[in-house]
User: Fold Fungal lipase-type domain-containing protein from Myxococcus xanthus.
Amino acid sequence: MYVAYNTSANCYVVAVAGTNGNKDGDHNWYDTDCLDDNVTVTTGFPLGINPANGDKPDTKNVGYVSQGAAWGTTNLLNMQDPKTQKTIQSFLKDNESSQGTLIFAGHSLGGSLSPTLALWLYPNAFAASRWGALYVLPTAAPSTGDRGFVNVFSAIFPPTAIRGIANYGFWNQVIWNQYDVVPHGWTNLMNIQPFNVQNDVVWDYVQGKSCQTLYGPLSGLSADIVYDAINAKYQLLRAQIPT
Assistant:
């Protein structure tokens, strides 16, 4: 995660990285079971996210997110600047401005974590109003949470057209390609075209392995059962725009 600031635009961008191709256990949450391997278990949002170095902005759950998204967001909230020792929460609080713009952005894994992080930090209209403008720009992102999560996210971060970008230019929506496998997780993986179960990334992981679900440990799952269990929980962010 990195925060960039444009002085002339008075704009901060919180950029969340996608999957690290190097199998670095400290930074690659995909390879450490943080996101991809923990979507069959959900946790309450936002109370299921408990950073050691931060204060919860809200007091009640509004929905559920995947356990992996919760762990990944917790990792982001626990990160500290090596020089100032500030977390993202304390840094943004110190720089909030009614004249400033704040954008959360991320691709793939980062596209899932950036809206989760944004809604955790700014869970209501009052909190969001501390900035002149507040947006989220996720790309190629898998689904993060259930309908409750999506409903609240859409209320705080309504779809907003980006000036000068026709057709697919919207804030607060996932910008995605319909042939990309990642945005189809975890709600409609079976709709990927062309479909080939032998080459499916989720099937490759699940095949012959066990999964821990809300209903207890399951083993020897077929692809159809895995998809059915996951699809029942997750909800896409509204009005996604394919490119």
Summary: The longest strand covers residues 101-107. The two ends are 26 Å apart (CA to CA).
